[in-house]
Amino acid sequence: MALELVKCPHCGYEFRTDIGEQEKDGETVAVRSILNFWKPKPKRIKTIDIECPNPNCRKTFEYPVEP
Asked: Can you give the pTM of this predicted structure?
């Protein structure tokens, strides 16, 4: 568990959160049909959506994640 300092781009509120855990929560299983079997797998998304914990803001923003 490594907490990272995150700053909301909307209100400037700074908070610490476990980015790795949030990244796991957002993962989904992708199923490809036989027609698309030979195409390469899609690239890994390098951002996650985070909701600002500031009660006056509560806006969602994208946060870059290192691969």
From this structure: 0.64
